[in-house]
Amino acid sequence: MFGNWGNPDHDDSVRIIHRALDAGINFIDTADIYSRGESEEIVGKALTNGRRDEVVLATKVHGPMGDDPNQRGNSRRWVIREVEASLKRLQTDWIDLYQIHRPSPDTDIEETLGALDDLVTQGKVCYIGSSTFPAAQIVEAQWSARERNLTRFVCEQPPYSLLVRGVEADVLPTCQRYGMAVIPWSPLAGGWLSGRWRKGTDTPSSTRARMLPDRYDLSLPDNERKLEAADALAALAEEAGISLIHLALAFVINHPAVTAAIIGPRIMEQLESQLGAAEIVLEEAILDRVDEIVMPGTNVNPADAGWENPALQPTARRR
User: Fold this and answer.
1) Which of 8, 71, 76, 135 is deepest in the core (most CB within 10 A)?
2) Fold of 10-303
C-alpha cells in the first residue's frame, strides 16, 4: 500500500515502516509490480542509515513492468534482468527472499528455478519462494528442484483469511509436508475484515475496490455472502472482547502451518490497530464459531483465490 496504489506520501510511508521496525516487526515484503516499482523505492529509502540489517527483506517478480510483453513473467531473461532493477530500487546488494509472484503457464518451472539458482550462487538472493501457487505446482517445483539439484522454494505466500480459507484444503498441508514456511497475504481479506464492512452501513470506497470490482461489488452474490460473513465475524469479535482486526490476524497466525502474516497498512492508524495481534491465542470455542460462519477449506468468493487456473478458463475448455 506504499506508493501510487495506496499512500503516495513517501515520507509518511517511511515513518510507518520505521514504526513497524520499532515495534519489533522484522520482515518486510514488497514486489516490483506494486505501484510499478515505487513501493520498492520507498522501502529502500526506509532501510537506509543502517536499518537494512534489521530486517528480512523480500520482494517478488512476475507482474508486468511495462507495455513490452517481455517485461513480465518467469522467464530466465526477465528474472535475471528484473532482479537488478529491484536491487537498485531497494538500495541493497542482496535480497533475503526473492519470490515468483504467480505461476506462469508459458514458462517451464525448471527454467525459472535455474535462473533463481544462479542468483543464489551469485549472492544476490539468499532464499527463493513462490506466491499464490496451487498445491500441484508447489509439488512440481519441489520435485524439479530435487531432480535437477537446484535451489528449492523455501516458502509459499498464499491468500489466507477468515473469508478466504481455500488453502487449508491443500496448500497449507502441502507446505507442511515439504517443510516450507507460509507467509499469507491479505489476512484482512483486502479490508473486508477491518470492521468497516458491516450490514446497514455505507459501502466503503477504496483504490482496491475500484481496481477489483469482482471482489467488492455488492451487486454480486459472492460479495453479498462476504458481507454477511464479515458482519457475523465482527459480532463474534465483539462477543470475544477483541477487535475484528485482531481476531482476523490471530486466526491466520494461529494456524500451525503459518510462519507470519503479511499486513498492509496504508496509514499509521491502520498499523497501530494491527500491532499486538501476535500475542492473541484464540480459544477452541471461538474457532468452532468461526467454522460455523465460514466452512474450513472454502473461499466465500472464489475470485479471492488470487489465481485462476488457465486450464479451467472457457477458451481452454472448448473442443
Assistant:
1) 135
2) TIM Barrel (3.20.20)
Q: List, by residue number, the catalytic residues.
A: 34
In the chain, the largest separation of any two C-alpha atoms, in whole Å, equals: 60
Digit-by-digit pLDDT tens for the chain (319 residues) are 999 999 999 999 999 999 999 999 999 999 999 999 999 999 999 999 899 999 999 999 999 999 999 999 999 999 999 999 999 999 999 999 999 999 998 999 999 999 999 999 999 999 999 999 999 999 999 999 999 999 999 999 999 999 999 999 999 999 999 999 999 999 999 999 999 888 878 777 766 767 778 888 888 999 999 999 999 999 999 999 999 999 999 999 999 999 999 999 999 999 999 999 999 999 999 999 999 999 999 999 999 988 777 776 777 666 5
How many helices, marked H, and strands, marked E, lie in the chain? 13, 6
What letter represents residue 106's amino acid?
D
Boundaries of every domain in the chain: 10-303
Place of cell 526477465: 78
